[in-house]
Q: What sequence folds into this?
């Protein structure tokens, strides 16, 4: 596979909730194995764009999508595509961690089991491996069979990361994944994400500019449902081309 | 003076409310007290461990084991069959049809079924059995009870599932789960306490219902040995024995009533305890 | 280039076995989800079909308004049973409605949170008690009470209120049936009325209290008007429960097929008619059709009330969410 082809690409993507348009003609590329951050004021369509990338938008009531989202050149909205495969290829980190109602072990093993990994030995190994990648193993290795709801919220978010990685996605989508966490836990997650971009394409939504400056390799700035500017991070942050981007970066709204 | 009138009215209404509330509590206590005090004296090991002997309904020896076993068979069978239909219906209704007109119609139909009097279920079940050429039997009683319990269970489960925050199925979908996996592997785990409560609620309703098994299950002094033999039940044991003119037999009706009450209250308490135990893995 | 492989080396374009199965079940679920509607319709139509013989032989008006019940002679007048049902239900409501309403208001507006949490299991418990048990209680406590205390007391005023005339020497009467029913439907009505009161926004109460109203005035002028449609619906739902209740009423109401004149008369409600005669009616022509018509009449009365209250409650309770 060519590493130069964009991993994800949207073409003339529009999204509607009922009659209100949330995304307008969005055409962007998301480079492979980098951290792409979608920034912009609240209500600008950041989260909607993210939801379009794994077809989560379909779970919203009367939402409608036009245009294409290409994953390795394949339109994920084509009617022949299996939506569960699309979602398997992209792990999601939500704003608030939402562990499944089962034990810590089963939370990670769940995805492996539904995707046909059944042997006890392999499961044990895989669960340990992904908990280590998420930086949670040392804290939970003695209580793997306790309910996941007993973990602290920061630990829960790392559990959700491990759970998402366990289904071996190619892309990690994060919807302000640190916004509900304390500063230490947030740092923990950020560090993991930087490590993980070696192997994964990461797309994050954030409204914290400082975080975007810390993490982003590629930046997409949105305003009122439209993409105003997109490009490599240093370029957008240091030499914004557009008036609105300049205004946003200087904190005018 | 206006403020004084307000004050009096407030006190008066509060008094009335407390009175009403007290009346309700008093009724509950009075019912339990009556059943226990009347039922205990004639309650014996023989009552629970033996079937009626000859002349039982004239006050001779024997017990109501036939009715206890019959009731358990009837209610267990009915609950099991109702569960088989109610659980997938409630679960998939929320996964496949949430927020649609058809889902509303399904829920409305369940509410309507829930409100149909049990005597009408009995008449319907009996008609159906005549049509099929069946006689009053355990199976007939079980099916009629299943009909009666199905809407209760399905609606109770539906209410529980609707209270699950949408983030939970989302987390499952994000991992590439299909609808079915989300429903049966994830949602089910979350609502386990609610499922247990719904099952026991329906079971309690089934074991206490007399009007629906009156013609469909029949009554017999023997413990049913097949699905096609008639089956006695506790509510009917109470009803029939109370109707006899012999004080000894009426006494036994009281203890049968006590046994039935203990079972039903036991089921109710078990469901509280179970829902507490099963709550361990649920996310709040 | 990508350094790792997916555990299932398949492209997203081919649908996995799991997803195909999911789609199959989804299609089949349409048929399955029609089950409740199908059941409701089949119960109605079965009763309708089985009542046909008598509906063909006698005009409906004659059946519903006739007061003679002599199956052996082919006379089937339902009026005694219909009026018996209505009498018992009305008496039950007259007793239960004020008590339940006041209790629900107390629980929702006055009681502490701890009491509210305590009372719910208690109501569930009360609702779980089988109707036969209420019947036993009625026979043991309510019947004698009506016979020895209430009837002699109230009949003193029978020249002013003819409905208090006590000609029935036993306690098995409409009043006994109504009282037992009232206790039976109480937990049910309280629970729903309480839920309806809870849908009234807190701000409304605070606004009223802030204007210097007492709590009762707040209930009277702010909470009740806002909740009234839901409250009416919950009371009607309780009423339809009362209409269909069989065993408990049957055991204490006397079962005499007459048109009642006083609350101390015996009555014979529709459910009791069905329960007492079903299974023994095969030898008399049209008897089973008559009992089916009785079931159908009962079902139609219950359905009418239920449909109204369910739709109202659904609207009221959903507004909150």
A:
């Amino acid at each position: 596979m060519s590493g130069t082809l964009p991993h994800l690409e949207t073409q003339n993507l529009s999204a509607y909730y009922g009659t209100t348009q949330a995304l307008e003609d969005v055409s962007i590329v998301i480079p492979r194995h980098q951290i792409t951050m979608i920034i912009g004021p609240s209500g600008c369509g950041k989260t909607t764009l993210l939801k379009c990338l794994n077809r989560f938008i379909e779970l919203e009531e009367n939402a409608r999508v036009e245009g294409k989202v290409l994953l390795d050149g394949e339109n994920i909205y084509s009617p022949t595509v299996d939506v569960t495969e699309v979602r398997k290829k992209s792990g999601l980190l939500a704003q608030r961690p939402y562990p499944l109602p089962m034990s810590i072990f089963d939370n990670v093993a769940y995805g492996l089991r539904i995707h046909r990994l059944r042997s006890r030995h392999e499961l044990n190994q895989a669960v340990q491996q992904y908990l280590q990648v998420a930086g949670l193993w040392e804290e939970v290795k003695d209580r793997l069979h306790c309910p996941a709801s007993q973990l602290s919220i920061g630990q829960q978010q790392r559990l959700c990361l491990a759970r998402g990685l366990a289904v071996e996605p190619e892309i990690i989508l994060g919807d302000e994944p640190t916004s509900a966490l304390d500063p230490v836990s947030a740092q923990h997650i950020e560090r993991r994400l930087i490590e993980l971009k070696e192997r994964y394409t990461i797309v994050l939504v954030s409204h914290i500019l400082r975080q975007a400056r810390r993490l982003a390799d590629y930046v997409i700035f949105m305003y009122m449902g439209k993409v105003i500017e997109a490009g490599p991070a240093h370029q957008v942050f240091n030499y914004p081309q557009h008036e609105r981007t300049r205004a946003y970066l200087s904190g005018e709204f | 003076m206006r403020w004084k009138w307000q004050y009096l009215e407030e006190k008066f209404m509060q008094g009335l409310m407390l009175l009403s509330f007290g009346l309700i509590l008093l009724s509950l206590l009075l019912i339990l007290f009556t059943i226990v005090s009347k039922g205990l004296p004639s309650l014996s090991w023989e009552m629970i461990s033996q079937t009626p002997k000859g002349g039982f309904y004239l006050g001779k020896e024997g017990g109501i084991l036939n009715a206890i076993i019959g009731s358990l068979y009837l209610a267990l069978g009915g609950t099991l069959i109702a569960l088989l239909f109610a659980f997938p219906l409630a679960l998939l209704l929320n996964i496949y049809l949430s927020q649609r007109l058809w889902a509303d119609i399904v829920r409305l139909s369940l509410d309507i079924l829930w409100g149909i009097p049990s005597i009408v279920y009995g008449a319907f079940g009996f008609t159906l059995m005549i049509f099929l050429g069946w006689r009053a039997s355990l199976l007939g009683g079980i099916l009629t009870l299943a009909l009666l319990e199905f809407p209760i269970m399905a609606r109770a489960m539906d209410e529980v599932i609707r209270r699950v925050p949408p983030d939970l199925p989302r987390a499952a979908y994000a991992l590439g789960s299909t609808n079915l996996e989300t429903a049966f592997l994830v949602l089910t785990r979350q609502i386990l306490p609610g499922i247990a409560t719904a099952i026991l609620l329906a079971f309690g309703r089934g074991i206490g219902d007399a009007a629906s098994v009156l013609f469909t299950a029949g009554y017999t002094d023997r413990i049913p040995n097949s699905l096609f033999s008639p089956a006695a039940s506790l509510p009917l044991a109470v009803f029939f024995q109370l109707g006899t003119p012999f004080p000894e037999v009426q006494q036994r009706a009281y203890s049968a009533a006590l046994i039935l009450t203990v079972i039903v209250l036991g089921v109710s308490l078990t469901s509280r305890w179970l829902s507490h135990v099963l709550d361990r893995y649920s996310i709040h | 280039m990508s350094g790792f492989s997916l555990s299932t080396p398949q492209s997203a374009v081919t649908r996995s076995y799991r997803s195909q199965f999911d789609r199959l079940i989804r299609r089949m679920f349409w048929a399955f989800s029609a089950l409740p509607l199908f059941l409701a319709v089949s119960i109605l139509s079965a009763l309708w079909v089985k009542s046909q013989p008598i509906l063909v032989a006698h005009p409906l008006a004659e059946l519903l308004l006739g007061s003679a019940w002599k199956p052996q002679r082919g006379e089937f007048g339902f009026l005694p049973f219909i009026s018996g049902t209505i009498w018992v239900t009305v008496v039950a409501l007259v007793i239960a409605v004020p008590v339940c309403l006041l209790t629900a208001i107390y629980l929702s507006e006055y009681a502490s949170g701890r009491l509210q949490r305590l009372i719910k299991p208690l109501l569930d418990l009360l609702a779980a008690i089988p109707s036969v048990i209420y019947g036993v209680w009625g026979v043991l406590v309510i019947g004698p009470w009506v016979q020895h205390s209430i009837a002699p007391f109230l009949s003193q005023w029978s020249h002013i209120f003819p409905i208090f005339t006590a000609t029935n020497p036993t306690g098995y009467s409409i009043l006994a049936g109504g009282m037992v029913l009232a206790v039976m439907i109480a937990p049910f009505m309280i629970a729903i009325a309480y839920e309806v009161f809870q849908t009234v926004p807190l701000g409304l109460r605070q606004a009223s209290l802030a204007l210097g109203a007492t709590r009762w005035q707040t209930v009277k002028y702010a909470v009740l008007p806002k909740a009234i449609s839901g409250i009416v619906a919950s009371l009607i739902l309780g009423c339809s429960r009362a209409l269909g209740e069989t065993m408990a009423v049957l055991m204490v109401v006397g079962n005499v097929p007459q048109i009642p004149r006083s609350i101390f008369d015996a009555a014979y409600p529709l459910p009791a008619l069905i329960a007492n005669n079903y299974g023994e009616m095969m030898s008399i022509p049209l008897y089973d059709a008559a009992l089916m018509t009785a079931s159908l009449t009962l079902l139609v009365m219950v359905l009418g009330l239920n449909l109204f209250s369910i739709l109202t409650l659904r609207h009221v309770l959903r507004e909150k969410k």
